[in-house]
Amino acid sequence: MIEEVERDRLIEAFEDLDPVLAPVLAPLGLAFKRMAAVVEGETGVGTRKWFALWMLGKEDGISQGDMCQQFGLDPSHLTRLSQALEREGMIRRERDPDDNRVVRVYLTEKGREKLRHLPALGEKLGRRVHRVLSDEELKELRRMLIVLAWAMKD
Questions:
Q1: CA dihedral defined by 28, 29, 30, 31, rounded to 10 degrees?
Q2: CA 59 to CA 105: how far, in whole Å?
Q3: What percent of the chain has pLDDT over 90?
Q4: For residue 80, what are the CA distances in angstroms to 11, 21, 126?
Q5: What b-and-e string marks burial along 86-95, b requiring 16 or more CB atoms within 10 Å of the CB?
Q6: What is the helix (H) or strand (E) element at residue 86, kind and residue range?
Q7: How far is Cα 81 from Cα 75, in angstroms, rounded to an integer?
């Protein structure tokens, strides 16, 4: 009951905000911030670093350029992020032997260890999400977020 009252209070607070930005930006930002806090609390890794590690878990040895293209990342931001992950021992970066201009990124054992948290973290977040959204609602939310991300692309 207390959770429902708090949720309803939050919904009302967002209704009083700017009618252009508030319907999407404010609640999306709050949801992201809270989910990011769970990820960081569980893994000790911020969401940007976690996202980079996740990408490498899908395709280890991907070039930084391909990472930027596939996920719409700014190359200079990805370079700084990669350097930080390298300093922390979670990735290693190597020049491509066939093209010295290309930098490939690989997970280290320490990086793979961080990714081992993914199934348990996914289950934990999934339980929290399914307390408030049905499978159908979650599928529709995902679809809408993808469409929104596409619409906001430069």
A1: 50
A2: 9
A3: 39
A4: 37, 30, 31
A5: eeeebbeeee
A6: helix 75-87
A7: 10
From CA 140, how far away is CA 129, in angstroms rounded?
13
pLDDT digit string, tens, across residues 36-94: 898 888 888 888 888 889 889 999 999 999 988 887 788 899 899 999 999 999 999 99
Closest CA to 82 of 97, 104, 109: 104
Taking the whole predicted model, whether its pTM rises above 0.85 is answered as no
Q: How would you class 67 by CB atoms within 10 Å of its CB: exposed for 0-12, middle for 13-18, buried for 19 or more?
A: buried
What element of type H or E holds 103? strand 99-107
Nearest one of 81, 84, 89, 82 to 105, comparing CA atoms: 82
Looking at the predicted structure, is the pLDDT value of residue 28 above 70?
Answer: yes
Do residues 106 and 89 touch, judged by C-beta distance below 8 A?
Answer: no
Length of the chain: 154
At which residue do the structure tokens 């919904």 appear? 11
Residue 67, C-beta contacts closer than 8 angstroms, at least 6 positions apart? 52, 55, 73, 78, 105
